[in-house]
Structures are given as structure tokens and as C-alpha cells.
């Protein structure tokens, strides 16, 4: 389970960085130089496989680093920053409550406080942003890795299951579907599919672990 937690932690790190801020120049360099990591598609579920196929296709058309970086930055801005009404708002409250700063945000903040996690003052977005929720799962995986004994590992996995069921899985798959369907998305269509596929897969992995003797 320790090795699986490390793999899951790494993938959550990849995902939350895709949504946390404007894509860095290093990402454009990896896409142009064909160094963006793509796993064996046959080992993935349908959504993840489709998403990585789309990212491979994007890489094939990526020739100039500056041009690709500008394109990624513009796409991120249109999708998640504005100005104006966001085509795909990356907030749990918008999906669950129909408004910013709704009840869902308060519930998420309670979970974070109970876990001893706080948002950095440098990060302007509210705690129910998709990046922060994915980063919380990344943190929980880290806690599981450092747990020290099987009982504490199971406690960590149980907390991950609760957060998945009560928060991420209630809205993130629909958010990913909307992002995939958005006319404003190109690169992020693939990221949307990968995100949805991984969350579905990870939810199953957590259930299997907790059901095992």
C-alpha cells in the first residue's frame, strides 16, 4: 500500500498543478520536446486513456515553446480566471449550491481545519477550488505514507474515502465533463478526461483497500 500511496500522491500532484495556476513555461517545453509523461494507455480506464491520447495529439502539433506557452496561458485564463463569467467555474460551491462561497465551501473548510490543513495567504482562490481539493488528497496520501503502522494507514485511507464521497466525487466528474465540452478548452479537454478517469479509478482503489482484510 505504501508504493500505491506514492503513485497516487504523484498523480494528485500532477493534477492539482494543472489547475492551481497558469501553466508554467516548463510545461510548454515538455510538450514541445515530447517529454510530457504518457503512461501505457492499455493499463488505464476509458476516460484516462482518451485523455492521454488527446494530450499526445496536442504534443504532435506543439512546435514552438513560446507559442505553446502563450496558448496554454490564454486558455487557462479564459477558462478559470476571466474576466467575466467563467465558462467552467472550478468551485464545488458553484456546482453544489449554485453560488460562490456557499454551504459547500463551509463544509470543505471544516474538513481542512479538522485535518490541520490551512490555505496559504498567497493563494487567492477559495478552499473549494478544484486545485485545492486535489491538493488535499495529495496531502492525505503523504500522511498515509508517513503513518508508520497499518492502523494509521487505514485511518488515512478512510479519511480519503470520506472526502472523495462527500466532496470531490459529488461535483468534480460533472466539472470535468463541462470542461471537456467547453468550446474554450483545447489542451484542457485532455486534462479533463484524465482527471475524471483518475478520480473514478482512485475511488475504486480506495474502496478495494478498505474492503480487504
Question: What descriptors fit this protein?
Answer:
single chain; 213 residues; mainly alpha; TorD-like; 9 helices; globular
Protein model, in words:
It is globular and about 50 Å long. It has 9 helices and no strands. The protein starts with a helix and ends with a helix. Helix 3 (46-60) packs antiparallel against helix 9 and helix 8 (150-181) packs antiparallel against helix 9. The protein has helices at residues 2-20, 25-32, 46-60, 65-81, 92-96, 103-115, 130-145, 150-181, 187-211. The chain has a single domain (2-211), classed as TorD-like (Orthogonal Bundle), CATH 1.10.3480. 70% of the residues lie in helices and 0% in strands. It has 213 residues and is an all-alpha fold. The longest helix is centred in the C-terminal third of the chain and has 32 residues, at 150-181.
